[in-house]
Amino acid sequence: MQHSENPMSPTRFLRRSIPAFLCVLIAVHSTWAQGRSAPTGVVTTPSPVATMNPAAKEVVDRAIAAYGALSTYSDTMVHRFDFRANIGGRAEDHSVTQTPRFRYAKPDRFCVTGVPLEMTTDGQRLWFHAPDLNEYIERPVQPGQRLTDSAGEFADMLGSHPVMELLAGRADTATGFPGFDQLVGVNDSVLNGRAVRIVQGRRLDNETGSTIHSRAWFDAQTQLLARMELDLRDAYLRAYEGAPPNQALTLDTALITIDFTDVRVNDAIPTESFVLKPSSVDRKVDHFSPPIEDIQNPNQLVGRPAPDFTGQLLGGGEIKLADLRGKVVVLDFWATWCAPCIRMLPAVNRLTERYKDKPVVILGVNLNVADQSGNVARFVTERKVDAMRHVLDPGGVIGRNYAAHAIPLTVMIDRDGIIRYVHTGFEGNVDQHYGDKIDRLIKGEPITP
Question: What is the pTM of this model?
Answer without folding.
Answer: 0.62
